[in-house]
Amino acid sequence: MSLVEELKRRNVFRVGIAYVVVAWLVMQVADVVFDAIGSPDWVMKTLLVVLAIGLVFAIIFAWAFELTPEGIKREHEVNRETSITRTTGRKLDRVIIGVLVLALGYFAWDKFLGGDTPVTADDAATPSTPENTTPTELDESIAVLPFVNMSANAENEYFSDGLSEELLNLLAKVDGLKVAARTSSFKFKGAEADINEIGQALNVATVLEGSVRRSGNQARITAQLIKVDDGFHLWSETYDRELDNIFEVQDEIARAIVDALKLPLLGEDESAVAHQSASFEAYDLYLLGRHHLRELNADGFAKATDYFKRAVELDPQFAPAWARLGEAYMGSSDYGSLPLEDAIALATPAIDQALSLDPALAEARMAKSLLDSYRGEFVDALAVAEAVLAEDPDNIDAIHAVASLVGESDPARQVELAAAAMSVDPLSELSRDMAVRAATIEGGYDAAQALLSDWISREPDNPGLYESWVTVARWYARMDIAIEQARRVHELRDGDVMPAALLVMMHLRIEDPDGAAYWLEQARSRGPDSRWATWSARYFQEYQGEMETLVTEIGAMVGSGEALSPDHLTLYGETLIRLGRNEEARRVLSEALQKAGGRPDQPPRTGEVRSLSLLANISPEGPERQALIDRVRLGIDHFLANFSDMPFSHVHAARLAALTGDRPGLFAALDRAIELGETGATWTETDPIFAAWRDEPQFREVLARMRQNAARQRDSLAAGDAL
């Protein structure tokens, strides 16, 4: 008898086939179970090795032993005339058929039905595209949720987050595809929300979710594309790759995703996917830095700075890391104790290097816009942001920057930008702040309050919502409400200096220097050399009448080369006027206006109107002064047309009346400001523009009424009923 015939007789082939099929099923079940319990990768590999070794033993066992009615015996001990190997073979055939049916059933479920039920974050799935789906059946929109970190080391979460964001950025480059911004998508990190709820919140038709299991230089990455309306899986795939070159891995995944998206989402349009290149070690440090950059506290910015510096040391050609390094330096001036002039000095070469490496990199260009704004060069900052926005209307950073820099000079543009921001990034603090401002423009304080109250009822611990309320309440001179909400921001956003600095200003507005002193100390405790603490101290000096000290300290800042914003230059110029140093004030105020960069075809913003008014106040009669007054009038007409329910509009109108000698207009405007809640008696009394009216009884009576408003708000705060 030949060897093959003997192998058949002893059922060796049947045992081998049955063993392989059963082992395959065991591997499938183990993959799901091990992923669910978060087992390290070596467990699965060990099981595979054990099963492979077991196959050898199974074949040897089938050759050497035989199953008999009396039990298992060595093959040579069994009389061939009484052998039941044929019966055993038939039983094995039935076992094989049964197991194959189970395997085929599992395969069919995984391929065709698995998408109808929730899929574990790391399930391996077979790519599939439903035949009944056409490109016109889906909106061209997608949200990339943060991939779940399935690694044994929880600290690898920065890597899974970073990979998700990179895929989001790559998909955002696909022409015609709307991609929800990172801030909103990451709101659902760890949340127990179903796909339909997520899609409705983010205004998208599809959601990409997945998981990352990283072990050393190996990673298993699972991605799944799901329809929002019915939860059906349009595409899924699992990648097991080495990470020696993370960019090639990301490109492979992104291209596969884009290819899958093209059929249901983009038809036959072609869209190239490309991005930066760097060593994996440098990129890993970059992801760590970006992770800490978003913590928005002093420690986070310090860590981010360190990681970005190490990244560019490893790969000096890595432009995104240079750009983020510049941002980290600037963030340290807001949330840490790095002086602004030092932050600018450190950030400038980093951002310049990023732009020299990749002039078209949006990340670097927006860092440059931010740097220009920190320098007080708002014209340049706006130009850069507008250019980025023109190239990519969905660039959320550009949308936010343009809205901030345009300010109140163009309400219609603000409403338009707010709609764009809410479409792309509806859950971010900045987008919601823009929506609140738009609501205020269109419906006043009540509309803004209703919107904020609704959001806060759902997210009571979101500091950005209270911060938006602070802004609106300040516009309406409701300092008591603004103070209450700013205190919540201070509590919820640990390490942020700005809330305490704003509280200094607001307590001064209600004539509460003791409260202002307390919050100044709080600001200094969080960032003793931060720009917020520095300038809140400067305004406190102004309130207390310490003009010589104020001029000396600001002059020292200017002398050291520190860049001042237009508002800070205006404070400097006003202080010089109070000291009778008008020629110096003229130069400073002219510089403030130049930095502000107001366009002749647009109304000036509040800061510009303030500078123009002060400059007109110290200018001799003549065409130059009249031109300044005409420009002031243009701004105030704009304020009264769009913000007539806000006290600041009428205070500015009173200044214009004082400049033109319009006594009835002066007191009518001040009366209206007081009716609307104006509280700033000390600021009004010491304003150089009102110097000629300061001792008049009617003016003194105006100041007394402002102080009454301030006292009522202090009482409201003390009673705890401001809201």
UniProtKB/TrEMBL annotation:
The keyword Cell inner membrane does not apply. The chain crosses the membrane at residues 12-30, 42-65, 92-109. Keywords: Membrane, Transmembrane, Transmembrane helix. The keyword Signal does not apply. It comes from the Bacteria. PANTHER family: CELL DIVISION CYCLE 16,23,27, CELL DIVISION CYCLE PROTEIN 27 HOMOLOG. This is Uncharacterized protein. It comes from Marinihelvus fidelis.
